């Protein structure tokens, strides 16, 4: 019964995410969206029997990259991180890709992680090739597990996580200047 509930919840979450991506584009990509939500640092909670993890709860996940490599969220603990949630068919995500690529190259002190969802891995890989963002780590989240864990309900969304685990969620597209502002702020805290 719990598997049926979990599957139903995952399908409902995916339907919400799919509906959230706008199809219209404005002349000024940075003027769309840009809604921010800030959360305080989550309290560290026990990771499980025999584990002494002090990573924030949001980083307690295991995933797989689009290259098929295992990825542990806890490896990001104590560092500034920008999660970029995108879908291959999303025009806002496509609009954000050049800014994400350029900003990640300029801000080596901030780890930028793409979180792909809402489509097949083949489509996700094609998006990475098309946008030239292959230098970033991209996680495959076709089931929406990480989207749900970090409270993301639409794409293109960024979750900026400070080393203390506190976050700020911003819906894009952001454009180059706004993304740069957020990454600079992460690096200086």
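Sequence proposed for the structure above (189 residues):
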């Amino acid at each position: 019964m719990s598997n049926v509930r979990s599957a139903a919840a995952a399908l409902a979450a995916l339907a919400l995410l799919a509906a959230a991506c706008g199809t219209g584009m404005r002349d000024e990509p940075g003027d769309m969206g840009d809604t921010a939500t800030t959360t305080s640092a989550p309290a560290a909670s026990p990771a499980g029997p025999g584990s002494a993890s002090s990573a924030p709860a949001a980083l307690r996940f295991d995933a797989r990259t689009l290259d098929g490599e295992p990825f542990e969220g806890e490896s990001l603990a104590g560092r500034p991180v920008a999660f970029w949630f995108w879908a291959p068919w999303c025009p806002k995500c496509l609009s954000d890709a050049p800014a994400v690529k350029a900003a990640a190259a300029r801000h080596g002190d901030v780890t930028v992680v793409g979180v792909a969802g809402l489509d097949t891995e083949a489509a996700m890989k094609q998006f990475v090739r098309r946008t030239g963002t292959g230098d970033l780590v991209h996680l495959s989240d076709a089931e929406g597990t990480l989207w749900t864990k970090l409270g993301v309900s639409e794409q293109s969304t960024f979750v900026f996580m400070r080393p203390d685990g506190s976050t700020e969620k911003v819906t894009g597209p952001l454009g180059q200047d706004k993304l740069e502002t957020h990454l600079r702020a992460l690096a200086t805290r």
